[in-house]
Amino acid sequence: MRTLTMKFGGTSVGDAQALSQAAEIVLNCAKEWERLVVVVSAASGVTDSLMRGALTAASGDGQTYLSIESELRERHREVVRGLLPSSGESASLLAMVDEQLAEFTAFCGSIHVLGEVTPRAMDTIVSAGERINAGLMAALLRQRGAFSVAVDATELIVTDATFQKAVPLMDPTRARIAERLVPLLADGVIPVVTGFIGATLNGEITTLGRGGSDFSAAILGDCLDSDEVWIWTDVDGVMTADPRLVPQARLIPVLSYAEVAELAYFGARVLHPRTIRPVVERGIPLWVKNTFNPDCPGTRIIQEAENACGAVKAVTAIKDLSMVAVEGRGMMGVPGIAARTFAAVASEGASVLMISQASSEQSICFVIPTDTVPSVVRAIEEEMAAELRRRDIDRVWSMDEMVIVTAVGAGLRRTPGVAARTFGALALGDINVVAVAQGSSECSISLVVSAEDAADAVRQIHNEVILNG
Ligand code: ADP
Ligand code: ASP
Ligand code: MG
């Protein structure tokens, strides 16, 4: 039994025309695959709007969420009117849209009264976007002659209670999928599953993190023993750089799991970083394809990719970062300072994206998201209070508006001179490198530059190292 799990991202289901195109793709694939599961995101911008509604309500604004409600209602109604005008289902679909948005408004009303929105409430609120789209896509497939039902992932994907970035619990998830999804597939039904969301064992709604529908597809792909997982998006596949930043970016036909994991981790939004793990463990080939150019084969992601296209395959950037430094002459040779520093960082739940190489033991530098800086600095100052008093540590400080630019490619460490060419590219562009990373794997080099240089740094590396590589 050949099984395919495919996911459509926000733009791919963003309006009537896109949904129609996505449905065509599903129907074509249904001819070739015996079991087919579809995962959908909310329409592009909807998750942002729902979040904005909740946040403005929490800050005392009683109007914005109401205008967001009417805007979203109109947007989804237009899809129903455009795609399913003659369908007997259109009334129930309009009612479904209304019901989801009425719930959103009711939640925002309570948040407005309380003056606060918890991560848990936020997850419940944003789940409406995916739920509406799963309903629309399943109805559209039915209208075009397929057997299809919308399935709420809160019934399938069981997670822990880390709201907004929940971790799936694979054993109960596997059991639920076997119980709920497999019988549908056996009956020739195409389930359309909500991306992004899940629920705890107690039934509280959770989300898998922004952009998490890719991860949902990988989890389903794993649990269904899919032969392949396809991610349909709005670009031809994984490119040598973000095409919005570098118009000359080219499609990369084949990448390894390790390379794409590195790209995703260092900011290439095209795949959610957690997508890789479920597929890599089972060796399931992952494809990234363009909904609006379905004849283009896209990018194939597999265990081992050949090194045909040069040592550096792609360049990415992550923004909104700060570099924190713990400095002092008295740190030299004192055991345990690094361990205590990072324990303090971890106690704040901040993720360290990069630790930079210091030439001496007089400082420890690391890069974290800017919004975590105040609590991290406070935690380190508390941990090191005695050392600060004794002046063994002079100061803990941060440099904001930093960006990590990463060049990725499995051949990188094996090819002499690539690091030098990468630095050379930046020197040519007169770009100052603030720090160099200790790569988290064998296939990337990361450099910290200031935010104002980030776009130039990406373009320089793209031109000098990838295109001329
Ligand atoms: P979706 O809603 O389909 O999940 P996303 O917006 O999350 O789409 O991801 C697709 C976007 O990722 C593209 O439109 C592109 O701007 C961006 N992107 C960033 N880096 C890359 C890259 N290296 N290759 C392709 N796209 C990239
Ligand atoms: N709709 C969610 C988001 O915007 C999930 C996704 O698009 O993958 O983050
Ligand atoms: Mg995405």
Description:
The chain is an alpha/beta fold. It has helices at 16-32, 46-58, 64-83, 90-114, 119-143, 170-180, 182-186, 213-223, 257-265, 276-282, 337-347, 373-383, 385-389, 418-428, 454-467, and strands at 3-8, 35-40, 148-151, 190-194, 197-199, 205-207, 228-233, 254-256, 286-290, 299-302, 314-327, 354-355, 363-369, 395-408, 435-436, 444-450. Strand 1, helix 1 (16-32) and strand 2 (35-40) form a beta-alpha-beta unit. Helix 2 (46-58) packs antiparallel against helix 5, helix 3 packs antiparallel against helix 4 and helix 11 (337-347) crosses helix 12. Residues 9, 211, 214 line the site of magnesium ion (MG).
- Give a list of the ligands: adenosine-5'-diphosphate, aspartic acid, magnesium ion
Question: What number is the mean pLDDT?
Answer: 93
The biggest beta sheet, please? 8 strands, mixed
Report the helical percentage: 40-55%
Strand line-up in the sheet with most strands: 3-4-2-1-7-9-10-8
- Helix and strand composition category: alpha/beta
What is the straight-line distance between the termini? 43 Å
Low-confidence stretches: none
* Assembly state (oligomeric): single chain
**Rg over C-alpha atoms, rounded to the nearest angstrom:** 24 Å
| Number of distinct helices | 15
Number of strands: 16
* Shape label: globular
The proportion of residues in beta strands is: 15-25%
